[in-house]
Design goal:
Layout lengths: L17 E5 L6 H17 L4 E4 L18 H15 L3 E4 L3 H8 L4 E4 L7 H9 L3 E5 L9 H10 L5 E5 L2 E2 L5 E2 L4 H6 L3 E5 L5 E2 L8 E2 L4 H10 L4 E7 L13 E2 L3 H16 L2
Amino acid sequence: MDLNLIPKLKHTDSNNFFLLAGPCAIEGEDMAMQIAEEILKITDKYQIPFIFKGSFKKANRSRIDSFTGIGDQKALEILKKVSEKFDVPTVTDIHQAEDAAMAAQYVDVLQIPAFLVRQTDLVVAAAQTGKAVNLKKGQFMSPESMQHTVQKVIDSGNQKAMITDRGTMFGYQDLIVDFRGIPTMKKYASTVLDVTHSLQQPNQSSGVTGGRPEMIETIAKAGIVNNVDGLFIETHFNPSEAKSDGANMLDIKHLNSLMHKLTEIRKTINQF
């Protein structure tokens, strides 16, 4: 996908990876603004194309008492404010076909969750908005099978599709990243590695997903070495208090160092 098709995306000529980053969920306006401002400062420093990410609602919860959002309209308005204040594109995930047209009024990229990526009506509805569509590879799907999901977007009259790998189920409570899938999926669309969700440990008996954030740098480095087009990283000023997915989130204080290392690796890889 031509990154220049995404409105407000900066540094597209830097030959760097692009970054989808932000909190798992929009918890409020102040936190969204603070996180966006910090990420923007870092990505401008290293000339990384940046798309701010935040879920306007969390529909895929293990327990009924888990945080699902602050209200759809309120969260979408915050995403719009982030885009307007910092002049950056935004991405949010949708869960039902009727979410597509609504969310498209506020964000630049619509994301299809991994566990819903085979839902044809949902993918088509997202594609028909004309927005870029980020297709997260199902934890249960092969890299090769994602070509058909990309084709659904194209057949709906939309050329703006990207694929995001977020790990493959390995046993009941773990995920692995099979880097053999990166070159395969790059044949079909721009390919992103979701670093933080790949380190989730789902299906815990407590009903609260675990994670291994200490491995974020390892997975991110491997993604850059293997020529992913972009990275997806959820980050927060205080992951332990995040209302969703805090167990696998990157503490934002580590983001600058990580982006510096990854940018230097990308420069080296570009020489080859």
